[in-house]
Recover the amino acids of this structure.
């Protein structure tokens, strides 16, 4: 069998190259769990933990996706399945990296990107170990078949999130890359929690789970459940509304927030989260970027950025969001902001009982008090991008919404 498709990159080479310094073809590759070997005298040693390598040698494992069908080995998953997903995912990732308002990215490209990112979360050694635990089998063929069948597991939930593309271009420190690039952060799930042991990640449908995915050395995509932005004072471990994963949903392209420029402290905190959630390997354009723990403490896990490091700006967010549409034959349809259809007993229940309105206003006021009048993410409304800074009247209005202490609000259920 040809060796062309046997060295399987679970993080594609095109993606790795986005984290190399301009003009270079390699980066610093760090093993978090170095292999142990014994010399002829029986003395044990650790293999070198730091290497400078190119993309051919990083984030790859021989025969990771090679399957056996009727006793015959095949590399069809690597050759055909990942070939198409990576090709379309590469183009879509580049479009998101350069995203601006008014948007020009197509719905097809967004679908390609979501399918790529969802598959990327499952295809790594950590993702495959997670699938093995879920299906209760160590049979490689069954695990790989589950990966193929579940490749769109995360797409609906992520589509309904608030999207923020943040920028590290003003920071001397840039983003690192890990062997599990789709990282999940939940402020109530520290590195030692049961949610983060072994191959586990906090589920994306928990209210307070943020999905973070670096798009390049300078750009990162952060996805946050809408229900968490509307009420970050509830338990972060509670399930979001309509957490069913496989269903149709609608993407709000104009709501993507951009133009948030991260401080170096924030980039280091993000890198600390990426490193903490890695399985075995991380890499970076500069060696010093691989050690964010020199500047960031694990004990501060739930208070990064006052607990809101990954939060989009709540000031463009509103309650409601029911969508209605009609067809030329007279039929019509509707869907609420959480993907529920009219026959669902909970359809638009938040709008009916105004359950999110008070907490969202509280949070808008708290955010304005913490971070000032400058927006930390700007979306597109009324045929223009949001202003960079709220005027005095708008800022004072948001501040007036803050009527309880931070502690009292965080105790609100």
């Amino acid at each position: 069998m040809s060796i062309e498709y046997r060295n399987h990159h679970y993080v594609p080479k095109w993606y790795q190259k986005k984290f190399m310094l301009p003009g270079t073809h390699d980066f610093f590759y760090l093993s978090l769990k170095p292999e142990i070997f014994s010399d002829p005298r029986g003395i044990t040693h650790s293999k070198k933990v730091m290497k400078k390598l190119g993309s051919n040698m990083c984030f790859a494992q021989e025969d990771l996706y090679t399957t056996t069908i009727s006793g015959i080995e095949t590399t069809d998953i690597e050759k055909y399945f990942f070939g198409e997903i990576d090709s379309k995912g590469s183009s879509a990732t580049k479009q998101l990296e350069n995203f601006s308002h008014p948007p020009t990215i197509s719905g097809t490209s967004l679908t390609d990107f979501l399918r790529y990112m969802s598959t990327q979360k499952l295809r790594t050694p950590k993702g495959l170990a997670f699938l093995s635990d879920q299906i209760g089998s160590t049979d490689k063929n069954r695990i790989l078949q589950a990966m193929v069948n579940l490749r769109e597991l995360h797409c609906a939930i992520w589509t309904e999130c608030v999207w923020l593309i943040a920028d590290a271009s003003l920071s001397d420190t840039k983003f690192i890359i890990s062997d599990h690039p789709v990282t999940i952060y939940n402020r109530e799930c520290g590195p030692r929690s049961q949610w983060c042991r072994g191959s586990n990640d906090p589920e994306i449908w928990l209210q307070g789970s943020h999905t973070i995915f670096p798009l390049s050395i300078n750009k990162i995509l952060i996805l946050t459940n809408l229900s968490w932005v509307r009420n970050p004072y509830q338990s972060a471990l509670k399930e979001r509304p309509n957490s069913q994963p496989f269903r149709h949903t609608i993407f709000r392209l104009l709501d993507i927030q951009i133009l948030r420029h991260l401080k170096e402290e924030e980039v280091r905190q993000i890198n600390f989260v990426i490193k903490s959630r890695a399985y075995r390997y991380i890499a970076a354009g500069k060696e010093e970027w691989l050690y964010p723990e020199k500047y960031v403490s694990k004990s501060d896990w739930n208070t990064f950025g006052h607990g809101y490091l990954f939060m989009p700006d709540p000031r463009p967010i509103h309650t409601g969001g029911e969508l209605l549409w009609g067809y030329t034959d007279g039929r019509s349809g509707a869907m609420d902001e959480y993907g529920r259809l009219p026959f669902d007993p909970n359809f638009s229940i938040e709008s009916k009982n105004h359950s999110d309105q008070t907490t969202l206003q509280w949070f808008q006021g708290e955010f304005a008090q913490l971070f000032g009048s400058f927006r930390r993410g700007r979306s597109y409304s009324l045929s223009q991008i949001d202003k960079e800074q709220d005027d005095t009247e708008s800022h004072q209005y948001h501040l007036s919404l803050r009527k309880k202490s931070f502690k009292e609000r965080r105790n609100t259920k």
User: Anything to note?
Assistant: Residues 323-410 form one domain. The first helix runs from residue 13 to 16. The mean pLDDT is 91.
